[in-house]
UniProtKB/TrEMBL annotation:
Pfam families: DUF3307. InterPro entries: Phage_phiKZ_Orf197. The chain crosses the membrane at residues 43-60, 67-86, 106-127, 139-162, 218-241, 253-274. This is DUF3307 domain-containing protein. It comes from Piscibacillus halophilus.
């Protein structure tokens, strides 16, 4: 089970942390050759990290078994080849899909397929050839995976979900006032004065909002794990204060509420999952 967890952790790290924005753009480039080269590079990163994690696991456990090495190498090669096929198919599907809901589904299905293709061959080969497994640091690795899913992966997921409903970074307000004016020798007249104002909220530097969301979910996960669920209210109060002025914009208030509730639900889910580990 240790090696399986290491392979899953390697997958998430390669798919998110060790994938630059430039590589992501290249993977979605209209030119087929550039796109395929980028996918090959991405798959190569997966292969290297997976092999590295497995090798480190063997060094720590001191279980250099030739048959085990062969089986794990087969699993890694199989997952690498299928990863290329899945990512290539995902590009064509992504071009045809316009619905935001379907993009969310595509993201979830993509990750589910990758994990399934790691798990099934691993279990099949280990059971078929009765290769001895290693059980070290399983709880720690499982917690790291849950923490990573709760932060980095969840941020990508929320970005896809909330992308289309994100409000503009400015609020325009129009105020109409009726004022009585009396000019010399004339009856008082009511005039309507229209005042327009615009308040801008520049975008946060270097995706700071994403990091705030990560910290928020980590704290929620910690509160749930320690049984101090009421501590979540403190996080929500602090977060609301920083955005108080923007709540005058109904669109932003709805966007903020949806994003906060989804982030909180994700944090709660992974908090309770961590308690099961």
């Amino acid at each position: 089970m240790t090696y399986l967890l290491l392979l899953i952790l390697a997958h998430f790290l390669a798919d998110f942390t060790f994938q630059s924005d430039q590589l992501i753009q290249e993977r979605h480039h209209p030119d087929k050759k550039r796109r395929e080269n980028a996918i090959v590079k991405h798959v190569g990163i997966h292969f290297i990290i997976s092999v590295g994690f497995v090798f480190i696991g063997m060094l720590i456990s001191q279980s250099m078994n030739l048959l085990l090495v062969l089986m794990l190498l087969i699993v890694i090669i199989l997952t690498s080849v299928t990863h290329y096929a899945i990512d290539s198919a995902k590009y064509y599907l992504d071009q045809k899909i316009t619905s935001q809901k379907m993009k969310v589904v595509l993201f979830l299905v993509d990750q589910a397929l990758h994990i399934t293709i790691i798990v099934l061959p691993f279990i099949y080969l280990i059971e078929k050839y009765s290769v001895g497994q290693v059980y070290i640091f399983e709880d720690v690795i499982a917690l790291i995976i849950l923490l990573y899913l709760n932060t980095v992966v969840a941020s990508h997921f929320l970005h896809i979900v909330l992308n289309k409903i994100a409000p503009p970074n400015s609020i325009e307000q129009t105020i109409e006032e009726e004022i009585d004016r009396k000019e010399d020798g004339q009856e008082p007249q009511i005039h309507t004065v229209i005042t327009k104002s615009k308040t801008s909220y520049p975008e946060s530097h270097h995706k700071i909002g994403r990091y705030i969301g990560m910290l928020e979910r980590v704290l929620i996960m910690m509160f749930v794990y320690s049984g101090q669920v009421m501590g979540i209210t403190i996080i929500l109060a602090i977060k609301s204060i920083t955005r108080f002025k923007q709540f005058d914009d109904k669109r932003f208030a709805e966007y903020y509420l949806i994003g906060t509730l989804m982030s909180m639900i994700i944090g709660l889910i992974f908090g309770y999952l961590a308690r099961l580990v």
